[in-house]
């Protein structure tokens, strides 16, 4: 089969080719979106494990605000305390998100970023 034959075949079946291409893009896009939005948290914990976690008051949590390099960095969000020490460049003193560290940041994180905290960092404790 020559190039001319393939070209004329594509022109004759243009609707079928475009429909097949569109169907492929829809399926591929849907599959990508499913994987993107159904990823699991880094650390999945059972209810029993969560119930045994340490509990923090606002005063206790404030000691873990990233200003002391010897302490881990914690963020309170939706009743849980997340250990964000792995992202210390963002949460330590002088970091872009230092204002979130060492306190209950639920209001701020409900606007933007809460899903990232829940997905990327382990739950370390609970807020009292």
TrEMBL record:
Belongs to the cytochrome b5 family. MAPR subfamily. One of its GO terms (cellular component) is endomembrane system. SUPFAM superfamilies: Cytochrome b5-like heme/steroid binding domain (SSF55856). Residues 56-128 form the Cytochrome b5 heme-binding domain. InterPro entries: Cyt_B5-like_heme/steroid-bd, Cyt_B5-like_heme/steroid_sf, MAPR/NEUFC/NENF-like. This is Cytochrome b5 heme-binding domain-containing protein. Signal peptide: none annotated. PANTHER family: CALCUTTA CUP-RELATED, MEMBRANE-ASSOCIATED PROGESTERONE RECEPTOR COMPONENT-RELATED. Gene3D superfamilies: Cytochrome b5-like heme/steroid binding domain.
């Amino acid at each position: 089969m020559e190039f001319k034959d393939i070209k004329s075949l594509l022109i004759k079946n243009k609707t079928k080719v475009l429909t097949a291409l569109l169907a492929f893009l829809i399926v591929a896009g849907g599959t990508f979106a499913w994987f993107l939005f159904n990823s699991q948290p880094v650390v999945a914990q059972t209810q029993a494990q969560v119930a045994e976690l340490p509990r923090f008051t606002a005063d206790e949590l404030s000691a873990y605000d990233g200003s002391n390099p010897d302490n881990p960095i914690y963020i309170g969000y939706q009743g849980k305390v997340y250990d964000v020490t792995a992202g210390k460049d963002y949460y330590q003193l002088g970091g872009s998100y230092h204002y979130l560290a060492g306190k209950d940041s639920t209001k701020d994180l409900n606007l933007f970023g809460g899903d990232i905290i829940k997905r990327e960092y382990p739950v370390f404790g609970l807020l009292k």
